[in-house]
Predict the 3D structure of the following.
Amino acid sequence: MDFDSLEGFLSHSQIRVEQYLNTAIGQRRASGVLSQAMAYSAVQGGKRVRAALMYGAARACGVDHAALDPLAAAVESMHAYSLIHDDLPAMDDDALRRGQPSCHVAFDEATAVLAGDALQALAFEFLASAQGPKISAEQCLAMVACLAQASGAKGMVAGQMLDMAAAHDAVNLAQLEHLHRLKTGALIVASVEIGALSQSHVSPKQIDNLRAYAQAIGLAFQVKDDILDIEGDTATLGKAQGSDLINDKSTYPALLGMTAAKARLMELHQQAKDAVAGFGAAAEPLVWLADFIVNRKH
């Protein structure tokens, strides 16, 4: 299917992954309130940027078929789990997520923890279920390893731990970038790599270029978040505006100043686009997504 705009590609990606998630979580309704909490966090709202990045990377490598849908659902399930746990009182203690009460507020803390746990496990179930005529067992294994590393003690969880430590101790720019490459960037990189791995004959050079794109855009995502925390508003952001300032968190504007933070954002934006230039028109959705991430309002 061809697209002529980000809006068309993003909408198509959202519909595909949300239909898959709705069906999969709906099949688990026997668990009652647990499945309700899972659906509340994984299906309602969200831009589906990680799913779109997965579809976009697969498209850049010449792949676009229904077997991609469980892969998109996997990265979105992992992302939803991380948001549920990050919002808990023991972590970031955020009461709002995507313009609605956080999972632990809408339900309770124990249910939120278990919903996050279930979504994390479901992500790996989705990857394993993708095996079939289009995707081999070897590809599924590589994807499972990729997501496990990105979401565990060498990736997202490590980043959250560093973020909690940084709430008490000031960090420098290099430390801040390392933190966000783990906390935010690792799952973005994994989303892109999983898309590339859906192509059985993807080359090492293609993987390297897509990884460079994802690393740049993953960091840009966080720089933009830090800028929006100052320049955005609560209604548009869907979470409390200015919470980083209130909590005295280390951010790019705090360390660099707003002008330099915006310059860093533009630098990362250009790095991302340069990294996928060799894919030609096939990578156009990835370029659109890079533009979207740095220009978004929430």
User: Anything to note?
Assistant: The chain has one domain: 6-286. Strands lie at 96-97, 100-101. The radius of gyration is 18 Å.
